[in-house]
Amino acid sequence: MSTPVSADHRARPSSERARRRNPLWRMIALAWPRGGRFALGVLLGAFATGAGVALLAVAAWMLATAADHPPITALSVAVVATRALGVTRGVARYLERLVTHDAAFRTLAEVRVRVYERLAATEPFGRFRSGDLVSRLVNDTEATLDLLVRGLTPPLISVVTGGATVLFLSVVYLPGGLLLAAGLLLAGLTVPLAAAALGRGPGRRQSRARGELSTALVDTLHGAPDLVAYGAMDRQVERVHTADAELTRLARRDAAVLGLGAGATALITGLTVWGALLLGVTAVEGGALSAVSLAVLVLTTLAAFEIVAPLPAVAAKLGAIRESGARLFGVLDVPAATAAPTRTGLDPDGDPSVLIRDLRVRYGPREPWALDGVDLEIPAGWTVAVVGPSGAGKSTLASVLLRFRDPDGGSVSIGGADITSHPPDEVRAVVSGVPQDPHVFASTLRENLKLARPGAPDEELWAALRRARLADEVAAMPKGLDTLVGTHGLGLSGGMVQRLALARAVLAAPRVLVLDEPTAHLDPDARDAVVADLLDAVEGYSTLLITHDLTGLERVDRIYVVRKGRVIQEGTHAELSEAEGWYRDVLAP
Amino acid sequence: MKPLDPRLVRAASAVRLHLAVSVVSGLLVTALILLQAWLLARVITGAWSGEGMAALGWAVGAVAAVAVARALLSYLAEASALSSAARTKSQLRRRLVEHVTGAGQVWTAEPGDDGEGSPKAGELVTLATRGLDALDDYFARYLPQLVLAAIVPLAVLGVVFWADWISGIVIAVTLPLIPVFMALIGMYTQARTDRQWRLLSRLGGHFLDVVEGLPTLAVFRRAKAQAAIIKAVGEEHREATMGTLRVAFLSAFALELLATLAVALVAVEVGLRLLGGHMDYQTALLVLILAPEAYLPLREVGARFHASMEGVAAADQVFTELERERGAGRPAPASAPTGRPSPAAAGDLRFEGVGMRYAGRDVPALSGFDLEVRAGEHVLLTGPSGAGKTTLLSLLLRLNEPTEGRVSVRAPGGAWTRLDAVPAADWRLGIAWVPQHPYLFDVSVTDNIRLGAPEATMERVREAARQAEADAFVSALPEGYDTRLGERGARLSAGQRQRIALARALCRDAPLVLLDEPTAHLDPENAAAVRTAVTRLLEGRTAVIVAHDTAWARSALGDSLRQVSLPLPSPEASESL
Predict the structure, then answer these.
(1) Which of A272, A562, B335, B381 falls 20 to 30 Å from A153 in CA-CA distance?
(2) Which residues are registered as beta bridge partners of B408?
(3) How big is chain A by its Cα radius of gyration, in Å?
């Protein structure tokens, strides 16, 4: 007998601690670049920015020295240095961008693998229902690139160059160095952080108004035929305009706040230069500073603010990356859907009969039972259908059989072995099938099929296609099995996708087939044909057909009607259409 | 792409204001830059020649004043830019919304797989909200820089020429080289990236494809094996991208190299002449301080090129949409709508050789269709998908007009008139329509039900809901009839949405009912409730029903039902692929 496994035991304390950490730090930890490439990039960037500042400092020294008409040899080093710095900056900047982008793409490739491995280990497929969520997850992974190139590199470069410049000026004239340090800190750290904090209020206010506008627009455009047919378009456009006016009012009011950052940066820059001038002139007057050093002090200060110029944009970028991180870890932190297996050695060639006893599943401690004590039997070679209204728990049954999740109670055994204590991949050698919304990869038909059995020769692929009644259509394609399908290739109709997925499942040669809602997205016309071919193809397998649609069920061996997580009726089509109950009601109202 | 779309300037008054503000503030900023450079040179020279704070105090104070003025100016410019951006976005959005909902717009009632009214609707929503937000950066960061890039280099060049013509020539020669080089490199890069694009997008999309397919991979025990492939494709992607970037970064390289090298040349040349006594210290300092300023705006524009392109692209999309041909071939309405339902909706209908071909399609959606529907009759349209059943309904709804043949109507006791002579708005007032995928709005249940009868009382709304078998589940919602339904009625199941749509039709209380596959995609239990509601809706009304499942229609409606079968318009035409 199996032991009920509760989801609560699976959460580990370490991941609990990780969850509380700032997503930005976790994102940085995830994307921590390997090797010295990234450090090299920062160094090159510091060279580039530093060359710009140094150019002006050296030039200022050269002019101030030249003003006293010394012999030309006094300037020769400065002349060479100026020209060299003129070239250094462009070259170093170009190399920096190449090196940091290269390092970032290398890191991205690794982060993708890390994210993928975590997903493959935890299988949080409950969240995969929304395609939007998956593509956002992928985009959030790609935010790594932004984090390294635009989020981390510029501030590090600023710290290195800013520190060096302050150090240099402090040697020239200590108060001048300290003044510059204060100015750079204010303009590079305080102002960007304060501006980001100030911007959060308007951001929240506007995002609510933006949501209202976006909803009104979605309603207008998607619901346009309904609006026109019911003469309600004018009222709806008025609703959009009202939402638009509110957003515009907020945005214009907030502009007064958002402009403060730019003003403050300009003020700090100007006043620091002024302060350097004030300090310098007083010091020259008092004999504490030479006139040459004054020129160097003022012009270096003037040029130094270029060092912190990229930082305000970084603050905004890091905010966006933090949000990406929060979303990404929201998915990655989901504990594994199945507990670590306790047994191994499931025989892939044994008896293919399925026995389900008192199966109970729920999606959280306070959620209602999705399956509430289901008993079900698939004798070897039988086709059994599970029908019922949507939300009855039918798909949960499929995910337990495919080992996408552990049951909270009861047992599922195949050929007498309890599958819930075997590792998922062992079970999937025995149970295979067509999941809800099967995915067609952007590759060739051949690659999509060979997924199920990597070494399969073409004859076997064709046999599988014939079985799924797709062989004639594929043979008619100019490139046959090499036809590209999926995102950028040939679009397949809903029926063809189901047949391809079926061929794939057949090719995997499991003992038990699970077909989850194979007709869910098909036209009524296509539905009948797909079901008929499907039932032909699964002959000989132990098959579980999950469907909300009663088409073709006269051909299955047994039907279970599931409602609210319980089996309320079972029998053959002939029996159920005679007996009083849900099945007959639905079949012939 | 042009940096400033002239259509943008014409279309939005806010843009013209913004440009004027940018030019004025750009001129002031230029003046302040020149003033600051002169003041710095003057003070440093003064201190060098032995002048003390007493003699230089005014100039030092003036530097502080310049700093404050520049700060104020940059605050005002940014605030006004963001404000202008908000107004421009609003102006563009209003034009866009009015354009796409305007009277001439053709709506296809043929639902896509996701039941959208128009396949482009999603793109339009994105464009009108997030897409237009690209204009923020464009307005606040790019356009003012563009103005500065036009003013500052010329002003600086003028002053440097006046101070020292030799340095002037160095700057005058290098400055124009920058845009020339950038354009040349840009053209070369474009050609290269275009060639690489397909490869890059395939490699870039691989990860998404694999993650989306993870459940499928897991079923076939291929999930773990994919990690190595992801890594390999990532490496391949990096190599291909770096190949493009090596070239793409060249333009920034040229910009940076020329700008800095020119400053270095000016510094050395000025320093040597100062040494030789051919120039005074103050002029030399002025030239050195000003030289980088000539290149700075160009570098800033270059750095913000990306932001600008997004803004320009967003504006371009808006204008492309605004210039799109409106409902071609639509006759002008014969008479203005009266606001009262047309009496013809309660009468007879006649189709004579009616055909319809959507613009840009080879195969007609409907051809040579004849039918007469008498008042009170229930007609069931059947036929394979692609036969034009939904198109026929859209003609009756006046969402489209027939491209051949004619539809006529006859009010009770009146004479036959062409349907297109009746104002569409009046005609629709007599119709209740329940589409295959009814759209529910993110407003209250009440407002959803009284969509076609805004003045309906609460009692009438409730009665309609009761008739549509919807009252029970609506009352169970947290706020009952005041509950907001969420985007596309996300709070409700497909069957519940269908019943709200039936309540909407019942509340409209119109003499002519159009139903499109009312029970398709529903689970049998919901379908049963919908059938009960449909039977009530059809009582005493004329109806045209499209349904695949003919058995229920016949059992529910009995003798009053007449079945009409539509063939495919052309032997090759099929929508199944």
Answers:
(1) A272
(2) B350, B418
(3) 34
A355 DSSP β-pair partners: A377, A413
Structural domains of chain A in order of their starting residue, each with its CATH number: 14-330 (1.20.1560.10), 354-440+508-587 (3.40.50.300)
CB A88 within 8 A of CB A47: yes
Helix (H, G, I), strand (E, B) or coil at A418: strand
Token representation of residue A364 = 């959280």
**Does A273 contact B63 at a Cβ distance shorter than 8 Å?**
yes
Q: What is the ipTM of this complex?
A: 0.83
Q: Are A218 and B66 in contact (CB < 8 Å)?
A: no
Chain A residue closest to B210 (CA)?
A441
In the 8-state DSSP scheme, what is residue A406?
-
- Nearest to residue B240, comparing CAs of B204, B187, B209? B204
Q: Are the beta carbons of B263 and A55 separated by less than 8 Å?
A: yes
Position A6 scores a pLDDT of 39
Give the tens place of pLDDT for each residue, A92-102: 999 999 999 99
Poorest-pLDDT segment among A220-229, A305-314, B196-205: B196-205
Distance CA(A493)–CA(A473), nearest Å, equals: 12
> What average pLDDT does the segment B149-174 reach?
93
**Which residues of chain B make contact with A488, given a CB cutoff of 8 A?**
201-202, 205
Closest CA to B295 of B385, B160, B396, B421: B160
Q: Which residue of B has its CA nearest to A98?
A: B246
Note whether A116 contacts B226, CB cutoff 8 Å: yes
Query: What rounded mean pLDDT belongs to chain B?
Result: 84
pTM: 0.80
3-class SS at B405? strand
Q: What's the whole-number mean pLDDT along residues A183-188?
A: 96
Contact A439 B216 (CB under 8 A): yes
Identify all chain A residues contacting B555, using CB atoms and an 8 Å cutoff.
588-589
In angstroms, the separation between the Cα of residue A15 and the nearest Cα of chain B is: 22
Dihedral over alpha carbons A101, A102, A103, A109 (to 10 degrees):
100
**Average of pLDDT values for A16-23?**
68
pLDDT value at position B108? 52
Tens-digit pLDDT profile for residues A253-279: 888 888 898 899 999 999 999 999 999
**Whole-angstrom distance, CA of residue A369 vs CA of residue A191:** 53
Q: How confident is the model at residue A202 (pLDDT cuts 50, 70, 90)?
A: confident
Residue by residue, what is the 3-state secondary structure of A327-341?
Answer: HHHHHHCCCCCCCCC
CB A37 within 8 A of CB A106: yes
- The DSSP string of B126-180 is HIIIIIHHHHHHIIIIIHHHHHHHHHHHHHHHHHHHHH-HHHHHHHHHHHHHHHH
pLDDT digits (tens, 9 = 90+) for B265-288: 999 999 999 999 999 999 999 999
Binary contact (A78, B271; C-beta < 8 A): yes
| pLDDT one-digit tens code per residue, A361-414 | 988 787 788 899 999 999 999 999 999 877 778 888 988 999 988 899 999 999
Rounded Cα distance between B487 and B125, Å, is 13
For residue B425, give the nearest of A67, A231, A244 by CB distance. Answer: A231
- Tell me how close the Cα of A270 comes to any Cα of chain B, in angstroms: 4
Asked if A244 and B94 come within 8 Å (Cβ–Cβ), the reply is: yes
User: What local confidence, expressed as pLDDT, does residue A175 receive?
Assistant: 96
Q: CB-CB: which of A69, A119, A134 is closest to B275?
A: A69
Residues of B in contact with A79 (CB under 8 A): 268, 271-272
Closest chain B residue to A72 measured between Cα atoms?
Answer: B275
Of B87, B125, B213, the CB nearest to A217: B125
Q: Are B473 and B525 in contact (CB under 8 A)?
A: no
Does the structure show a pLDDT above 90 at B460? yes
